[in-house]
């Protein structure tokens, strides 16, 4: 991939977003096409701008970062997604890579790590911050990524829309507000909410909040 690389920055903290934009335009010499602060707005931004690369924070309002990755990676196979996260949880990294991210970089790492990861994914390779997996390598020379668990967990049965509703309920949004945010009817929200609660054996909002934390949607 040659020429000027177009990038969408997804980060809800303005100071961090400013830093990423400077890195992209000054250090990498690429172009920032858009800045997005809410997980629900990422897909539309990609439709409008068609970036080659996305720099994404996982802890987003509106929609979990892993679900954002999955949604965009399924739609745009050539989109390279670099996760820039505060979490060094290897499970969170595994989820991101399984969903379609090409790189996982810690916010606490030197800027050179993010620069290296960005160049690497544009070349079609993958990158995992050594601080996450201790720099382990497999015999083929690639960064080690744990294999997914074979056990079917309840949360794996949730649809993307049910996961969106789960996160928004945990954030304190009412059904009416969720309907507006997702551009669906209140009745549809209620259906997704009931299905989600049934699959997770959740009986109240407290249970939903607990599941959101368990799934690392609330960072």
Automatic annotation (TrEMBL):
Residue ranges occupied by any HTH luxR-type domain in the UniProt entry: 151-216
Domain named Response regulatory: residues: 6-122
Single Gene Ontology BP annotation: regulation of DNA-templated transcription
A UniProt-annotated Pfam family: GerE
Keyword check for Manganese: no
Molecular-function annotations in GO: DNA binding
Name the UniProt record assigns to this protein: Oxygen regulatory protein NreC
